[in-house]
């Protein structure tokens, strides 16, 4: 049996990734700024070529480079991520009415948390952990709700943007509606 026959018998061919592929994969997963050394370690690649890839990604606007600290860090460009997420959401098959319902549900959830804990922000909710005598389970629940609240605030911005810019975000292959 040849290698090609073996690969077709096993289904998908095993794919080898390059160091650059791995650096790109690692940077897509970043949730906080990281140094070139950290990214190189995660990508299992040497520092210098990793740094060259990171510089190119920063120059292309895919990553943000921050030179203000003791070490240069790289993080995803939040504006670019928001636009990509808005485009994915617009293309997801949801109608504008469905997205409006999702938006209303997210806002209702935040209102419920404000009422339940008598606070106005996720950080105020975190502050109640110090102010009140809570058991560990209640503290964990409040920290989790604060994280979810921040996540929902960001999602509300993106979903609201998609609703407001529904026509602008339409795929170019979708026929334009005639204006009356």
Describe the 3D structure.
With 180 residues, the protein is mainly α. It folds into two domains: 14-76, Arc Repressor Mutant, subunit A (Orthogonal Bundle), CATH 1.10.10; 80-164. Residues 5-14 have low confidence and may be disordered. The chain has helices at 3-9, 19-28, 36-43, 47-59, 78-90, 96-117, 122-131, 136-164; strands spanning 34-35, 63-66, 73-76. Helix 2 (19-28) packs across helix 3 (36-43). A hairpin with a 6-residue loop joins strand 2 and strand 3 (73-76). The protein is flat, with a radius of gyration of 22 Å. Strands 1-3-2 form a three-stranded antiparallel sheet.
Write the layout of secondary structure elements.
Layout lengths: L2 H7 L9 H10 L5 E2 H8 L3 H13 L3 E4 L6 E4 L1 H13 L5 H22 L4 H10 L4 H29 L16
Antiparallel strand pairs: 1-3, 2-3
Helix pairs in contact: 2-3, 2-4, 3-4, 5-8, 6-8, 7-8
Quick structural summary:
The chain is mainly alpha-helical and 180 residues long. The chain has helices at residues 3-9, 19-28, 36-43, 47-59, 78-90, 96-117, 122-131, 136-164; strands at 34-35, 63-66, 73-76. The protein is built from 8 helices and 3 strands, in the order H-H-E-H-H-E-E-H-H-H-H.
């Amino acid at each position: 049996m040849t290698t090609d026959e073996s690969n077709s018998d096993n289904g998908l061919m095993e794919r080898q990734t390059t160091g650059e592929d791995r650096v790109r994969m690692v940077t897509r997963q970043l949730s906080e700024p990281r140094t070139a050394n950290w990214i190189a370690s995660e990508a299992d690649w040497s520092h210098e070529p990793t740094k060259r890839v990171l510089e190119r990604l920063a120059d292309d606007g895919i990553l943000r480079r921050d030179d203000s600290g003791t070490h240069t860090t790289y993080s995803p460009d939040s504006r670019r991520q928001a636009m990509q997420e808005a485009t994915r959401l617009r293309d997801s098959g949801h109608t504008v009415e469905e997205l409006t319902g999702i938006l209303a549900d997210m806002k209702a959830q935040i209102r419920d948390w404000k009422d339940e804990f008598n606070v106005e922000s996720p950080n105020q909710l975190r502050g109640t952990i110090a102010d009140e005598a809570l058991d560990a389970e209640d503290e964990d629940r409040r920290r989790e709700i604060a994280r979810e609240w921040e996540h929902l605030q960001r999602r509300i911005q993106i979903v609201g943007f998609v609703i407001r810019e529904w026509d602008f975000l339409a795929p170019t292959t979708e026929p334009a509606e005639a204006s009356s």
